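Standup notes
- DV: blocked on the single-chain target, sequence here:
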Amino acid sequence: MLLQRAARAQIHRTQRSAIRRSLATAAPTLPPSCVWRPCPFDDRSDAAPLVIVFGFTSSTQKQLAKYAKVYHALGLDAITWACPPREVLRPESSRDTAARLLDALHEDTLIHRNVVLNGLSAGAYSVGNTLLELDARGGRDAFYGRIQSAVYDCPVDFDGVPKGVSSAMLGEGTSLQKLGESAIRLYLSAVDTEKWESSSAMFHAMPPAPPSLWIYSLNDEILDIPSIEKMIAKWRCRGDDVQTLVLDESPHVKNLLTAPDAYYDAVRERVGDFRSNSNS
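- DV (later): unblocked, structure below
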């Protein structure tokens, strides 16, 4: 009788575990810019969070898959948001994607999952728009409580939009890029920039900012390095836990390619390792 009870209990535990796994990897309903990338490993903890990779301008899902693999190695499922130029130049388009993403994060399969934010270049702007949308719909404090950590790789603020977008579309440093940058600056000077500035302000004032990792290179010509270091100092001054990985030389959004081992180790230290058999 005791053996039968033990066997039944083991079956029930196995069934509950299978249900948890199926819920964890069931594809949510996502907006067109986003793709669900479940972790392929089954040795991960049930406590593993979900990472949202906010892609750089004109990023492709193929490019973002490389970042998802970094998190897969740590046991995390991933959602990758490939950001087309229109979502940077038209804030309402980005807010619509953010709204639908937040809907997915509140579905039954994901509502109990903690979240890691990973902003790549202008992806930090998408993070800001997501926080704006969250602020508008309510429930901000509950969602902030789910944000376990954040990684910002080559973060571009509003001031970097003209050069960042033109470089992504036309090639960094080309004659066309310089013309494109001038055209975007002219466009932004002729329109109300309140929506872009609101996104930037929401990101800067994120209360409370989760433990974060900032990754950038000192020769990145698209970044405003003094502004990045000023913001890091500001967050640290108010008591936030901020780590950095600073490379001497690396092109914009190429830090993972330039220093893959250092990149993985820094992300692992910040985010955590939720697999039992991953490489230390």
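- Follow-up: The radius of gyration is 20 Å.
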